[in-house]
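Input record, target 12 of the design panel.
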């Protein structure tokens, strides 16, 4: 099953995500990242840049499991939208890197690694579809 088009449009339009990992002591650790979205029907992914020596990048070497959120910044209840996701993080391939650089061309000049989160689960909530309306997607279902 494909990721719902409304969730795809939301993730393509947004650009800031909060992502959580587990640090070297086993504690939760969250970070924010600008991202580009690869809406590939079979392998949707969130693509972001990070310094390979950051605490979260070091956490990727211990566990590739991550979770995160993307939310619309609004105080208007009827316009609230957001996505919760989980997946596996790994270095981005060249095509994914180009998706990121197309969205953030200045990032080519910054040292760092480009990563992707291969999405395995997305829960999209949008009050524009009805109060608290949720659309759940799981890879392979």
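The sequence produced for target 12 reads:
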């Amino acid at each position: 099953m494909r990721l719902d088009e409304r969730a795809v449009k939301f993730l393509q339009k947004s650009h800031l995500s909060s992502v959580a990992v587990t640090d070297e002591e086993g504690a939760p650790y969250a970070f924010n990242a600008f991202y580009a979205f690869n809406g590939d029907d079979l392998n949707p992914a969130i693509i972001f840049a990070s310094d390979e020596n950051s605490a979260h990048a070091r956490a990727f070497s211990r566990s590739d499991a991550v979770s995160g959120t993307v939310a619309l910044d609004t105080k208007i209840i009827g316009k609230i939208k957001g996505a919760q996701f989980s997946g596996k993080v790994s270095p981005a391939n060249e095509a994914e890197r180009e998706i990121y650089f197309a969205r953030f061309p200045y990032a080519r000049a910054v040292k760092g690694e480009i990563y992707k989160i291969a999405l395995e689960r997305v829960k999209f909530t949008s009050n524009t579809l009805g109060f608290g309306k949720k659309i759940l997607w799981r890879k392979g279902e």
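DSSP finds three helices and seven strands in the chain.
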